[in-house]
Write a structure and sequence with these properties.
- The protein has 402 residues and is mostly helical.
- Helices cover 62% and strands 1% of the residues.
- It is built from eight helices and two strands, in the order ββαααααααα.
- The chain has a two-stranded antiparallel sheet.
- The N terminus and C terminus are likely disordered.
Protein backbone atom coordinates (compact mmCIF):
# COMPACT_ATOMS: atom_id res chain seq x y z
CA UNK A 1 0.00 0.00 0.00
CA UNK A 2 1.30 3.42 -0.88
CA UNK A 3 1.41 5.80 2.06
CA UNK A 4 2.31 9.46 2.34
CA UNK A 5 4.09 10.43 5.51
CA UNK A 6 2.82 13.56 7.32
CA UNK A 7 4.70 16.73 6.43
CA UNK A 8 6.20 18.06 9.65
CA UNK A 9 8.65 20.72 8.53
CA UNK A 10 7.84 21.28 4.86
CA UNK A 11 9.87 18.31 3.59
CA UNK A 12 7.99 15.90 1.30
CA UNK A 13 8.85 12.25 1.85
CA UNK A 14 7.41 9.36 -0.13
CA UNK A 15 7.48 5.73 0.94
CA UNK A 16 5.88 2.65 -0.58
CA UNK A 17 5.61 -0.64 1.25
CA UNK A 18 6.74 -3.74 -0.67
CA UNK A 19 3.99 -5.92 -2.05
CA UNK A 20 3.68 -9.03 -4.16
CA UNK A 21 2.88 -8.79 -7.84
CA UNK A 22 -0.74 -9.93 -8.40
CA UNK A 23 -1.21 -12.97 -10.58
CA UNK A 24 -3.13 -12.21 -13.73
CA UNK A 25 -5.31 -14.79 -15.40
CA UNK A 26 -4.32 -15.96 -18.82
CA UNK A 27 -7.89 -15.63 -20.07
CA UNK A 28 -10.66 -13.38 -18.91
CA UNK A 29 -13.88 -14.64 -17.37
CA UNK A 30 -16.74 -14.43 -19.88
CA UNK A 31 -19.17 -13.35 -17.13
CA UNK A 32 -16.92 -10.47 -16.11
CA UNK A 33 -16.47 -9.47 -19.74
CA UNK A 34 -20.24 -9.33 -20.22
CA UNK A 35 -20.64 -7.25 -17.03
CA UNK A 36 -17.90 -4.87 -18.16
CA UNK A 37 -19.51 -4.64 -21.58
CA UNK A 38 -22.85 -3.81 -19.95
CA UNK A 39 -21.18 -1.10 -17.85
CA UNK A 40 -19.63 0.36 -20.98
CA UNK A 41 -22.44 1.13 -23.38
CA UNK A 42 -20.12 1.23 -26.38
CA UNK A 43 -16.49 0.48 -27.15
CA UNK A 44 -14.99 3.82 -28.07
CA UNK A 45 -12.48 3.76 -30.88
CA UNK A 46 -11.91 7.52 -30.94
CA UNK A 47 -10.71 9.28 -27.77
CA UNK A 48 -12.63 12.39 -28.79
CA UNK A 49 -15.87 10.49 -27.99
CA UNK A 50 -14.55 8.56 -24.98
CA UNK A 51 -16.26 9.72 -21.78
CA UNK A 52 -13.26 8.78 -19.71
CA UNK A 53 -11.15 11.49 -21.34
CA UNK A 54 -11.14 14.75 -19.38
CA UNK A 55 -11.61 17.88 -21.47
CA UNK A 56 -11.08 21.50 -20.57
CA UNK A 57 -9.13 23.13 -17.76
CA UNK A 58 -8.08 20.70 -15.02
CA UNK A 59 -6.80 23.31 -12.54
CA UNK A 60 -10.22 24.00 -11.00
CA UNK A 61 -11.17 20.35 -10.64
CA UNK A 62 -11.66 18.93 -7.17
CA UNK A 63 -8.88 16.48 -6.32
CA UNK A 64 -8.80 14.25 -3.30
CA UNK A 65 -5.89 14.62 -0.85
CA UNK A 66 -3.19 12.00 -0.69
CA UNK A 67 -4.44 10.64 2.64
CA UNK A 68 -8.11 10.38 1.57
CA UNK A 69 -9.68 6.96 1.95
CA UNK A 70 -12.37 5.57 -0.40
CA UNK A 71 -15.90 6.00 0.84
CA UNK A 72 -17.10 2.63 2.25
CA UNK A 73 -20.71 3.50 1.39
CA UNK A 74 -19.78 4.07 -2.26
CA UNK A 75 -17.80 0.82 -2.34
CA UNK A 76 -20.73 -1.05 -0.84
CA UNK A 77 -23.10 0.50 -3.38
CA UNK A 78 -20.87 -0.52 -6.26
CA UNK A 79 -20.61 -4.07 -4.93
CA UNK A 80 -24.40 -4.20 -4.59
CA UNK A 81 -24.85 -3.00 -8.20
CA UNK A 82 -22.34 -5.59 -9.43
CA UNK A 83 -24.08 -8.32 -7.42
CA UNK A 84 -27.46 -7.35 -8.89
CA UNK A 85 -26.10 -7.47 -12.42
CA UNK A 86 -24.64 -10.95 -11.87
CA UNK A 87 -27.94 -12.15 -10.38
CA UNK A 88 -29.88 -10.65 -13.32
CA UNK A 89 -27.55 -12.38 -15.79
CA UNK A 90 -28.00 -15.74 -14.05
CA UNK A 91 -31.76 -15.31 -14.00
CA UNK A 92 -31.67 -14.39 -17.70
CA UNK A 93 -29.68 -17.53 -18.49
CA UNK A 94 -32.12 -19.64 -16.51
CA UNK A 95 -35.06 -18.16 -18.44
CA UNK A 96 -33.52 -19.02 -21.83
CA UNK A 97 -35.32 -21.85 -23.61
CA UNK A 98 -33.37 -25.08 -23.48
CA UNK A 99 -33.71 -28.49 -25.02
CA UNK A 100 -35.45 -31.11 -22.94
CA UNK A 101 -33.36 -33.71 -21.20
CA UNK A 102 -32.44 -36.74 -23.34
CA UNK A 103 -34.14 -40.06 -22.76
CA UNK A 104 -32.26 -42.89 -21.14
CA UNK A 105 -29.57 -44.30 -23.38
CA UNK A 106 -29.18 -41.16 -25.53
CA UNK A 107 -27.33 -37.88 -25.33
CA UNK A 108 -27.39 -34.49 -26.98
CA UNK A 109 -24.75 -33.52 -29.55
CA UNK A 110 -23.96 -30.23 -31.26
CA UNK A 111 -25.21 -30.01 -34.84
CA UNK A 112 -24.18 -27.37 -37.36
CA UNK A 113 -27.07 -25.40 -38.76
CA UNK A 114 -25.05 -23.08 -41.04
CA UNK A 115 -25.44 -23.07 -44.78
CA UNK A 116 -21.84 -24.21 -45.35
CA UNK A 117 -20.82 -27.17 -43.27
CA UNK A 118 -17.37 -27.47 -41.78
CA UNK A 119 -15.62 -30.58 -40.68
CA UNK A 120 -15.20 -30.68 -36.90
CA UNK A 121 -12.31 -32.52 -35.33
CA UNK A 122 -10.94 -32.65 -31.82
CA UNK A 123 -7.37 -33.04 -33.14
CA UNK A 124 -5.71 -29.92 -34.51
CA UNK A 125 -3.90 -30.34 -37.76
CA UNK A 126 -0.13 -30.10 -37.43
CA UNK A 127 2.78 -29.98 -39.88
CA UNK A 128 6.56 -30.25 -39.27
CA UNK A 129 8.92 -27.95 -41.23
CA UNK A 130 12.72 -27.88 -40.89
CA UNK A 131 15.25 -25.13 -41.73
CA UNK A 132 19.09 -25.12 -41.53
CA UNK A 133 21.08 -21.92 -40.88
CA UNK A 134 24.80 -21.13 -40.77
CA UNK A 135 26.72 -21.19 -37.49
CA UNK A 136 27.13 -17.85 -35.65
CA UNK A 137 30.53 -16.15 -35.95
CA UNK A 138 32.21 -14.30 -33.09
CA UNK A 139 31.61 -10.56 -33.18
CA UNK A 140 34.80 -8.53 -33.41
CA UNK A 141 35.49 -6.01 -30.62
CA UNK A 142 34.06 -2.55 -31.16
CA UNK A 143 36.86 -0.02 -31.85
CA UNK A 144 37.22 2.94 -29.48
CA UNK A 145 35.37 5.97 -30.76
CA UNK A 146 37.59 8.99 -31.13
CA UNK A 147 35.87 12.07 -32.47
CA UNK A 148 37.65 14.11 -35.06
CA UNK A 149 39.32 17.27 -33.84
CA UNK A 150 37.70 20.49 -35.02
CA UNK A 151 38.15 24.18 -34.22
CA UNK A 152 41.08 26.02 -32.62
CA UNK A 153 42.79 25.37 -29.28
CA UNK A 154 42.39 28.24 -26.73
CA UNK A 155 43.83 28.41 -23.19
CA UNK A 156 42.59 30.43 -20.21
CA UNK A 157 44.30 31.09 -16.86
CA UNK A 158 42.01 30.61 -13.81
CA UNK A 159 43.37 31.45 -10.36
CA UNK A 160 42.31 29.85 -7.09
CA UNK A 161 39.01 31.23 -5.88
CA UNK A 162 37.86 32.71 -9.18
CA UNK A 163 35.16 30.11 -9.94
CA UNK A 164 34.30 28.40 -6.66
CA UNK A 165 35.03 29.05 -2.95
CA UNK A 166 34.06 26.01 -0.93
CA UNK A 167 33.89 27.84 2.43
CA UNK A 168 31.50 30.47 1.08
CA UNK A 169 29.38 28.15 -1.09
CA UNK A 170 28.99 25.49 1.57
CA UNK A 171 27.84 27.94 4.28
CA UNK A 172 24.11 28.24 3.23
CA UNK A 173 23.87 24.50 2.61
CA UNK A 174 25.43 23.79 5.99
CA UNK A 175 23.06 26.28 7.67
CA UNK A 176 20.09 24.57 6.10
CA UNK A 177 21.30 21.12 7.13
CA UNK A 178 22.09 22.21 10.69
CA UNK A 179 18.79 24.14 10.97
CA UNK A 180 16.76 21.19 9.74
CA UNK A 181 18.62 18.83 12.06
CA UNK A 182 18.07 21.09 15.06
CA UNK A 183 14.42 21.65 14.14
CA UNK A 184 13.84 17.91 13.76
CA UNK A 185 15.58 17.26 17.06
CA UNK A 186 13.46 19.92 18.81
CA UNK A 187 10.30 18.43 17.36
CA UNK A 188 11.30 14.97 18.54
CA UNK A 189 12.15 16.30 22.01
CA UNK A 190 8.84 18.16 22.22
CA UNK A 191 7.00 15.07 21.07
CA UNK A 192 8.76 12.95 23.69
CA UNK A 193 7.94 15.50 26.39
CA UNK A 194 4.31 15.59 25.30
CA UNK A 195 4.12 11.80 25.32
CA UNK A 196 5.72 11.75 28.77
CA UNK A 197 3.17 14.30 30.03
CA UNK A 198 0.32 12.28 28.53
CA UNK A 199 1.62 9.10 30.18
CA UNK A 200 1.98 10.89 33.53
CA UNK A 201 -1.53 12.31 33.24
CA UNK A 202 -2.86 8.89 32.29
CA UNK A 203 -1.13 7.27 35.26
CA UNK A 204 -2.52 9.94 37.61
CA UNK A 205 -5.99 9.46 36.14
CA UNK A 206 -5.75 5.69 36.48
CA UNK A 207 -4.58 6.00 40.09
CA UNK A 208 -7.46 8.36 40.89
CA UNK A 209 -9.93 6.11 39.13
CA UNK A 210 -8.63 3.02 40.93
CA UNK A 211 -8.88 4.84 44.28
CA UNK A 212 -12.44 5.92 43.47
CA UNK A 213 -13.34 2.38 42.39
CA UNK A 214 -11.90 0.96 45.63
CA UNK A 215 -13.83 3.52 47.69
CA UNK A 216 -17.00 2.82 45.71
CA UNK A 217 -16.63 -0.92 46.23
CA UNK A 218 -16.02 -0.38 49.94
CA UNK A 219 -19.15 1.79 50.24
CA UNK A 220 -21.19 -0.72 48.23
CA UNK A 221 -20.00 -3.56 50.43
CA UNK A 222 -20.81 -1.57 53.56
CA UNK A 223 -24.26 -0.70 52.22
CA UNK A 224 -24.84 -4.35 51.34
CA UNK A 225 -23.89 -5.48 54.84
CA UNK A 226 -26.18 -2.85 56.41
CA UNK A 227 -29.04 -3.86 54.13
CA UNK A 228 -28.60 -7.56 54.87
CA UNK A 229 -28.41 -6.84 58.63
CA UNK A 230 -31.54 -4.71 58.42
CA UNK A 231 -33.43 -7.36 56.47
CA UNK A 232 -32.31 -10.06 58.91
CA UNK A 233 -33.45 -8.09 61.95
CA UNK A 234 -36.75 -7.15 60.30
CA UNK A 235 -37.32 -10.82 59.49
CA UNK A 236 -36.59 -11.81 63.08
CA UNK A 237 -38.93 -9.10 64.38
CA UNK A 238 -41.68 -10.23 62.01
CA UNK A 239 -41.27 -13.81 63.14
CA UNK A 240 -41.47 -12.71 66.82
CA UNK A 241 -44.60 -10.63 66.13
CA UNK A 242 -46.15 -13.50 64.20
CA UNK A 243 -45.51 -15.93 67.03
CA UNK A 244 -46.95 -13.45 69.57
CA UNK A 245 -50.01 -12.94 67.40
CA UNK A 246 -50.52 -16.70 66.99
CA UNK A 247 -50.15 -17.18 70.75
CA UNK A 248 -52.64 -14.40 71.52
CA UNK A 249 -55.10 -15.82 69.00
CA UNK A 250 -54.78 -19.28 70.48
CA UNK A 251 -55.38 -17.93 74.01
CA UNK A 252 -58.35 -15.85 72.86
CA UNK A 253 -59.80 -18.80 70.95
CA UNK A 254 -59.45 -21.06 73.95
CA UNK A 255 -61.07 -18.51 76.29
CA UNK A 256 -63.86 -17.89 73.79
CA UNK A 257 -64.46 -21.62 73.37
CA UNK A 258 -64.65 -22.12 77.12
CA UNK A 259 -67.05 -19.19 77.60
CA UNK A 260 -69.09 -20.23 74.58
CA UNK A 261 -69.43 -23.85 75.56
CA UNK A 262 -70.32 -22.95 79.20
CA UNK A 263 -73.85 -21.80 78.33
CA UNK A 264 -74.31 -23.14 74.81
CA UNK A 265 -77.97 -24.11 75.10
CA UNK A 266 -79.24 -20.85 76.68
CA UNK A 267 -77.25 -18.77 74.19
CA UNK A 268 -78.63 -20.81 71.29
CA UNK A 269 -82.20 -20.29 72.40
CA UNK A 270 -81.53 -16.62 73.13
CA UNK A 271 -79.93 -16.11 69.73
CA UNK A 272 -82.82 -17.86 67.97
CA UNK A 273 -85.27 -15.75 69.92
CA UNK A 274 -83.36 -12.56 69.08
CA UNK A 275 -83.15 -13.49 65.41
CA UNK A 276 -86.93 -13.94 65.23
CA UNK A 277 -87.25 -17.69 65.02
CA UNK A 278 -89.57 -17.62 68.08
CA UNK A 279 -92.15 -14.84 67.54
CA UNK A 280 -95.80 -13.91 68.23
CA UNK A 281 -97.91 -13.96 65.02
CA UNK A 282 -99.98 -10.97 66.07
CA UNK A 283 -96.96 -8.92 67.03
CA UNK A 284 -95.21 -9.92 63.77
CA UNK A 285 -98.31 -8.86 61.79
CA UNK A 286 -98.45 -5.54 63.58
CA UNK A 287 -94.75 -4.89 63.04
CA UNK A 288 -94.66 -5.95 59.37
CA UNK A 289 -98.06 -4.70 58.18
CA UNK A 290 -99.61 -2.07 60.40
CA UNK A 291 -96.62 -0.07 61.58
CA UNK A 292 -95.16 0.54 58.08
CA UNK A 293 -98.53 1.76 56.84
CA UNK A 294 -98.87 4.09 59.84
CA UNK A 295 -95.37 5.47 59.23
CA UNK A 296 -96.09 6.07 55.53
CA UNK A 297 -99.29 7.94 56.34
CA UNK A 298 -97.57 10.06 59.00
CA UNK A 299 -94.71 10.84 56.64
CA UNK A 300 -97.13 11.89 53.87
CA UNK A 301 -99.05 14.15 56.26
CA UNK A 302 -95.84 15.70 57.59
CA UNK A 303 -94.66 16.31 54.01
CA UNK A 304 -97.92 18.08 53.15
CA UNK A 305 -97.66 20.21 56.28
CA UNK A 306 -94.03 21.01 55.53
CA UNK A 307 -94.93 22.01 51.97
CA UNK A 308 -97.71 24.32 53.18
CA UNK A 309 -95.47 25.87 55.81
CA UNK A 310 -92.71 26.39 53.25
CA UNK A 311 -95.08 28.12 50.83
CA UNK A 312 -96.51 30.28 53.61
CA UNK A 313 -93.00 31.26 54.75
CA UNK A 314 -92.09 32.21 51.20
CA UNK A 315 -95.24 34.35 50.80
CA UNK A 316 -94.68 36.06 54.15
CA UNK A 317 -91.02 36.67 53.35
CA UNK A 318 -91.91 38.25 49.97
CA UNK A 319 -94.58 40.46 51.55
CA UNK A 320 -92.23 41.55 54.33
CA UNK A 321 -89.50 42.36 51.83
CA UNK A 322 -91.87 44.39 49.65
CA UNK A 323 -93.26 46.35 52.60
CA UNK A 324 -89.78 46.89 54.04
CA UNK A 325 -88.66 48.25 50.66
CA UNK A 326 -91.70 50.56 50.59
CA UNK A 327 -90.94 51.74 54.14
CA UNK A 328 -87.32 52.39 53.18
CA UNK A 329 -88.45 54.54 50.27
CA UNK A 330 -91.03 56.48 52.31
CA UNK A 331 -88.94 57.08 55.38
CA UNK A 332 -86.09 59.59 55.17
CA UNK A 333 -84.08 58.85 58.29
CA UNK A 334 -82.03 55.72 59.06
CA UNK A 335 -83.57 55.33 62.53
CA UNK A 336 -87.06 54.96 61.10
CA UNK A 337 -85.73 52.34 58.64
CA UNK A 338 -84.14 50.35 61.47
CA UNK A 339 -87.38 50.42 63.48
CA UNK A 340 -89.31 49.18 60.45
CA UNK A 341 -86.78 46.40 59.91
CA UNK A 342 -87.01 45.33 63.56
CA UNK A 343 -90.81 45.36 63.35
CA UNK A 344 -90.68 43.23 60.17
CA UNK A 345 -88.32 40.77 61.85
CA UNK A 346 -90.61 40.47 64.83
CA UNK A 347 -93.54 39.85 62.47
CA UNK A 348 -91.58 37.09 60.74
CA UNK A 349 -90.73 35.49 64.09
CA UNK A 350 -94.40 35.60 65.14
CA UNK A 351 -95.44 34.07 61.84
CA UNK A 352 -92.87 31.27 62.26
CA UNK A 353 -94.07 30.64 65.81
CA UNK A 354 -97.66 30.55 64.63
CA UNK A 355 -96.73 28.23 61.79
CA UNK A 356 -94.83 25.93 64.21
CA UNK A 357 -97.82 25.82 66.53
CA UNK A 358 -100.11 25.04 63.61
CA UNK A 359 -97.78 22.28 62.42
CA UNK A 360 -97.63 20.71 65.90
CA UNK A 361 -101.39 20.87 66.13
CA UNK A 362 -101.80 19.23 62.71
CA UNK A 363 -99.29 16.53 63.68
CA UNK A 364 -101.26 15.79 66.84
CA UNK A 365 -104.50 15.60 64.89
CA UNK A 366 -102.87 13.28 62.36
CA UNK A 367 -101.59 11.01 65.09
CA UNK A 368 -105.02 10.87 66.72
CA UNK A 369 -106.69 10.16 63.40
CA UNK A 370 -104.62 7.04 62.59
CA UNK A 371 -107.14 4.87 64.38
CA UNK A 372 -109.89 5.81 61.87
CA UNK A 373 -110.86 3.27 59.14
CA UNK A 374 -108.87 3.15 55.93
CA UNK A 375 -111.84 4.24 53.87
CA UNK A 376 -111.91 7.54 55.70
CA UNK A 377 -108.28 8.15 54.87
CA UNK A 378 -108.76 7.32 51.21
CA UNK A 379 -111.73 9.72 50.97
CA UNK A 380 -109.60 12.60 52.23
CA UNK A 381 -108.08 14.79 49.52
CA UNK A 382 -104.38 14.56 48.81
CA UNK A 383 -103.77 18.21 49.58
CA UNK A 384 -104.51 19.09 53.20
CA UNK A 385 -106.82 22.10 53.56
CA UNK A 386 -105.37 25.14 55.15
CA UNK A 387 -105.90 25.49 58.86
CA UNK A 388 -108.71 27.85 59.72
CA UNK A 389 -106.48 29.90 61.95
CA UNK A 390 -103.62 30.29 59.49
CA UNK A 391 -105.38 32.61 57.08
CA UNK A 392 -106.90 34.62 59.87
CA UNK A 393 -103.60 34.89 61.60
CA UNK A 394 -101.90 35.98 58.40
CA UNK A 395 -104.59 38.61 57.77
CA UNK A 396 -104.35 39.78 61.33
CA UNK A 397 -100.62 40.12 61.02
CA UNK A 398 -100.92 42.06 57.79
CA UNK A 399 -103.52 44.36 59.40
CA UNK A 400 -101.23 44.80 62.36
CA UNK A 401 -98.31 45.67 60.05
CA UNK A 402 -100.50 48.13 58.13
Amino acid sequence: MTTVLPQKSGTYTFASQPRAVPQRKKYRDPAENEINNEDQDAVYGNIMYDRRIVRGNTYAQHTLPATAQPDPIEIQRQQEVRRRKIAAKRAKEQLKPRSPEPVEGRKHIDVQTELYLEELSDRVEEADIECQTDAFLDRPPTPLFIPAKTGMDVATQIYEGDLFDFDIEVKPILEVLVGKTVEQALLEVMEEEELANLRAQQRAFEELRNAEMVETQRLEEQERRHREEKERRMKQQREVLLKEKETAEKIAARAFAQSYLADLVPSVFGTLNDNGYFFDPVERDVENGFMPWIMEQVEAEINRSLLGRTMLDAIIRDVVKQRAAAYFKLEESQSAAERIASAAQSVVDQEEKAEGAAQEKSAEETTEGQGEPEGGDESRPETAPAEPGEGDEGDGDENAED
